[in-house]
Write a structure and sequence with these properties.
This protein is α+β, with helices and mostly antiparallel strands. Helix content is 29%, strand content 30%. It has helices at residues 17-27, 37-41, 85-99, 114-120; strands at residues 2-4, 7-11, 43-51, 54-63, 68-76, 104-106. A six-stranded mixed beta sheet has the order 1-2-3-4-5-6.
Length: 132
């Protein structure tokens, strides 16, 4: 666990569906409650941020079983934004992915998030996308 400014980051803690749903509901308009267990069971790792026991941030890392890993669901509670927590979460996730054998870390994002992910250490690349 890494603590800074009363926000503690933890790698792969147990997380309840209701606390993830609360965070996602506050952060993402239109979020519908779901079961996160099957997603986390297949994840390479995830990082959670807590302030005073309350979940205030989350990022998931999916892996391909080889050298590629993927950042998913980067989420910071609206009350905690613009303080560097998202960057801390993504950098912690990158370190954990490296420690677990990943050599490449990928992320997809919308154009308005390019500067955020640049601060995290990503550079833009050309990629393809198919909606299924």
């Amino acid at each position: 666990m890494v603590s800074s400014g009363d926000v503690a980051l933890t790698v792969c803690p147990e997380l309840a569906d209701d606390e993830l749903d609360e965070l996602f509901g506050a952060s993402w308009p239109g979020h519908r409650p779901r079961s996160f267990g099957p997603v986390l069971a297949r994840s390479l790792a995830w990082v959670a941020a807590r302030r005073g026991g309350r979940l205030v941030g989350f990022v998931n890392v999916a892996g391909d079983g080889g050298v590629h890993a993927f950042i998913l669901d980067t989420t910071v509670h609206p009350d905690e934004r613009r303080r560097g927590l998202g960057v801390r979460l993504v950098r912690a996730a990158a370190e954990e992915a490296r420690a677990r054998g990943a050599e490449w870390l990928h992320v997809d994002y919308e154009p308005q998030l390019e500067s955020f992910y640049a601060r995290c250490g990503f550079r833009p690349t050309a990629a393809g996308l198919m909606r299924l």
